[in-house]
Amino acid sequence: MFGTLSDEVEVKVSADKAWQLYGTLELADIAAKYIVDEIEIIEGNGGVGTIIKITFKPGSGISYYKEKYTVVDDEKRVKEAEVIEGGYLDFGFTLFRVRFEIKDSPNDETSSSCLIKTTIEYEVKEEAAANASFATIDPFVALNKFASEHLLNSA
């Protein structure tokens, strides 16, 4: 069973400024501050191949997972990470990928705002199809809210 979830938010900062946050490990710092219990960099510096371990707050249903950055495209301002251990994989998912895309807002000719699109792609084994409901965009919507506040306050 394959599925996708997505969310898009407009932020009143340039796409380049947003990418300076989303395209780096600084986004993980915001997640660690507001969303998750701890983030540990296992290897890498934020580029393709970087592996981070995300430990969730007690009661969140998932204790931890490790994700690997598979795409970090500074030109297109796209970053993708896939879960490679724990978390969703423990619930029968064979794929859990998160993509952030930062685009200039088409309604803003001054380039002073951008669109941040977050997409989750997942695949679940048929025998675990009931667990597909664990896939949710909500933590990423919350992360985008905190990231947007950070961007606006540092403008």
UniProtKB/TrEMBL annotation:
Signal sequence, renumbered to the chain: none
Transmembrane segments: none
One GO term of the biological process aspect: abscisic acid-activated signaling pathway
Family: Belongs to the BetVI family.
UniProt name for this protein: Bet v I/Major latex protein domain-containing protein
Keyword flag Protein transport: no
InterPro entries referenced in this protein's UniProt entry, alphabetically: Bet_v_I/MLP, Plant_def-hormone_signal, START-like_dom_sf
Assigned GO CC terms: cytoplasm; nucleus
UniProt keyword annotations, A-Z: Alkaloid metabolism
